[in-house]
Write a structure and sequence with these properties.
Elements (H helix, E strand, L loop, with lengths): L2 H8 L9 H15 L2 H9 L10 H27 L5 E3 L3 H10 L6 H20 L3 H6 L3 H22 L3 E4 L3 E4 L6 H18 L5 H18 L27 H4 L5 H30 L12 H17 L4 E3 L3 H6 L5 H13 L4 H4 L4 H4 L1 H10 L11 H17 L2 H18 L8 H18 L5
Antiparallel strand pairs: 1-4, 2-3
GO molecular function: purine nucleobase transmembrane transporter activity
Protein name: Xanthine/uracil/vitamin C permease
Keywords: Cell membrane, Membrane, Transmembrane, Transmembrane helix, Transport
């Protein structure tokens, strides 16, 4: 029996009305669609993770390696255990929450933030093992679940606009439009963004990766041609290749000894909540493309792909990166005909192969990397169509979830606003009996937390 026959038998390719060639092409398609995270994740996390004795470029490469390895591990589990064609990697939005809210905003050491990710992953695994998914889902208000993706999208948009210097601070209005066309950084970012949106609109596979690489190439071309000096639109110096991630891997252990209990619980709660529902929503959404859902609209054996997510998150925390989640870009591979875990195995192997480009990733300017945040942010706004805006409880809860995230610069604060608002409005309209006891308890606990937090009693 040849390799092709072995793979076909292992993943029951014929039983899923597919073939090995189709599965491999689907895997390549999914990898190209989501591989931008190799550059974007370290671009975000390296702003918060600082390691003594190492420059940002070296830390950037360490995080890129952790990103690749965690994505490969999680996607391999998806392939071999769940036999589903879904790719996983550290998630956009959760990495922004890790860097900008938890570490830079709350002042939590990055090692402790990794510890929170580790605890969240272990908790996720335990709940998956005992089959508690349905109970946890019922515990959170439906409008919050439906709107959290759009809220994260707006949060990513806000960060992306700031990083491209399209939006800048203002003393009178807090933010305002920057001097874009007097700023080569912003000009290149804006042109790269327009180019990437054009590729995406035309359905070009790997449009975000192509946009990032093309924008970076233009920046370097202008620098090498002498139009701009080194350091203006490209890194002033490039670090040597950094494949040793031992200063990063295992750092979560030190973080476990630096815990402020109340803040740590909230951080773990937010990581868990967003990861849980983002993964569940993505799995259902992508499964619709492949006709994987049963007659009740559920994904059979959903606990298996959820376990892949949990294992990836736990492994990612050990390696030194933020929460791993299933990627909506997996739908591109499913559309190409991917139906089994062989597609996911191809994605995992391609991630491992990308380790050879680690020395190159630090050369990509930040304005090229952060194009991805704006493009993905726009894509995530489609979740707003699932909100019943005619229902007061839905409108207020979802509206606050979506808007508080970017305005407070925190996914956690947006989630809290929506969770607190839902029972309040339900009581106001006389529908208090439609709110579960657990929802009242969580809302009350969050109120207590924010009273103490905003009075400076806790972090």
């Amino acid at each position: 029996m040849g390799l092709t026959d072995t793979l076909a038998a292992r993943f029951d390719v014929e039983g899923h009305d597919s073939d090995v060639r189709t599965e491999l092409i689907a895997g390549l398609t999914t990898f190209l669609a989501m591989s931008y995270i190799i550059v974007v994740n370290p671009a975000i996390l390296s702003e918060a993770i600082q390691i003594e004795g190492y420059g940002q470029g070296e830390v950037f490469q360490m995080i890129a390696i952790a990103t690749i390895l965690s994505a490969a591990i999680a996607t391999a589990v998806m392939a071999l255990y769940a036999n589903r064609p879904f790719g996983l990697a550290p998630g956009l939005g959760l990495n922004a929450f890790f860097a900008y809210t938890v570490v830079l905003g709350l002042g939590v050491p990055w090692q402790t933030a990794l510890a929170a990710v580790f605890v969240e992953g272990v908790l996720f695994m335990l709940l998956t093992v005992v089959g508690a998914r349905e109970y946890v889902i019922r515990l959170f208000p439906e409008p919050v679940k439906r709107s959290v993706g759009a809220g994260i999208g707006l949060f990513l948009l806000f960060i992306g606009f700031q990083e491209l210097q399209i939006v800048v601070p203002d003393d009178a209005t807090l933010v305002t439009l920057g001097g874009i066309f007097g700023n080569p950084w912003a000009i290149l970012g804006l042109l790269g963004l327009a180019f990437t949106f054009g590729l995406w609109a035309r359905g070009i596979t790997g449009s975000i990766v192509i946009g990032i690489l093309t924008t970076a190439a233009v920046g370097w071309g202008l620098t090498l041609a002498g139009v701009f000096g080194r350091g203006a639109i490209t890194p002033e110096t490039l670090p040597s290749a950094q494949y040793d991630i031992s200063p990063l891997a295992g750092a979560f252990v030190d973080g476990l000894g630096q815990i402020d209990p109340l803040t740590f619980v909230l951080v773990v709660f937010t990581f868990f909540f967003v990861d849980f529902f983002d993964t569940a929503g993505t799995l259902i959404g992508v499964s619709q493309f492949g006709d994987f859902l049963d007659d009740d609209g559920d994904l059979p054996d959903m606990d298996k792909p959820l376990m892949a997510d949990a294992v990836g998150t736990t492994a990612g925390a050990v390696l030194g990166t933020s929460t791993v989640t299933t990627y909506i870009e997996s739908s591109t591979g499913v559309e190409e005909g991917g139906r089994t875990g062989l597609t996911a195995l191809a994605v995992a192997l391609l991630f491992l192969a990308s380790l050879v480009v680690i020395p190159v990733v630090a050369a990509i300017p930040a304005y090229a990397s952060f194009i991805a945040l704006i493009v993905v942010g726009v894509m995530m706004l489609q979740g707003l169509v699932e909100v019943d805006w005619n229902d007061p409880a839905w409108a207020v809860s979802a509206g606050l979830t979506v808007t508080v995230m970017p305005f407070a610069y925190s996914i956690a604060d947006g989630l809290a606003a929506g969770i607190i608002a839902y029972p309040l409005i339900k009581v106001a309209v006389g529908e208090y009996d439609e709110v579960a006891l657990g929802q009242y308890v969580i809302a009350a606990l969050l109120v207590v937390y924010y009273v103490l937090q905003t009075r400076g009693v806790i972090l």
